């Protein structure tokens, strides 16, 4: 089981880290903070630059997740971003990612919660510093699930506008970053 959790943490954490660095630094063909802020602004988020930075930092927590360090907190940051991504961009497109839907985001959200609930495993920095017993278990998973939903929904509720369809200004970043972009 430890090998499977390690594999899951490294892959999922790496994906999040890559998306976060797109937002924060423009790496991997990303748009950086200003471009991401333009996208967030078009979606009706107040203080879009702040939201872009928060999303970028939350996603770069994937490096902590991959290392198994402060695992439930990294999982919470990542899961919260997925709730906001689904609610602001993907839900209206249905389930299938090929149509811009939320299946990819749901999968990443579920993986983060599953690792929070099961713990980071034997091959983790949390284990090295003997935090894994304190920072794992069912209640951590339930907490990440509940807090990510509540926090994400609060963020979504604070948007200035609730666009019926995705603004055209936001289509360019999505097309450039790929279908699987988390808002």
Describe this structure in words.
It is built from 9 helices and no strands. Helix 3 packs across helix 5 and helix 5 packs parallel to helix 8. The radius of gyration is 16 Å and the shape is globular. The chain has 183 residues and is mostly helical. The N and C termini lie far apart (32 Å). Residues 168-181 have low confidence and may be disordered. Helix content is 66%, strand content 0%. It has one domain.
> Order of helices and strands, N to C?
HHHHHHHHH
- Major sheet, described briefly? none
Compute the number of helices.
9
Strand content: under 5%
Number of beta strands: 0
Percent of residues in helical segments? 55-70%
Give the domain tally.
1
Cα-based radius of gyration, to the nearest Å: 16 Å
- Give the overall pLDDT as a whole number: 88
Terminal-residue CA separation:
32 Å
Overall shape: globular
Report the uncertain regions. 168-181
Global structural class:
mainly alpha
